[in-house]
Design brief:
- The protein is mainly α.
- About 65% of the residues lie in helices and about 0% in strands.
- It has one helix and no strands.
- It starts with a helix and ends in an 11-residue tail after the last helix.
Length: about 40
């Protein structure tokens, strides 16, 4: 396994990459045109 220091660094990098991606996905998800499996 990775040492705690490396794991913290990896987590920080992953978060830095995923944050803008998740924000972008969130924008698209909240758009009115949601068609996947939403039968409300």
């Amino acid at each position: 396994m990775l040492s705690p220091e490396w794991r913290a660094l990896v987590v920080a990098l992953v978060m830095a990459v995923l944050s803008p991606v998740m924000a972008e996905i969130g924008k698209h998800v909240e758009a009115p045109t949601v068609e996947e499996g939403s039968d409300e």
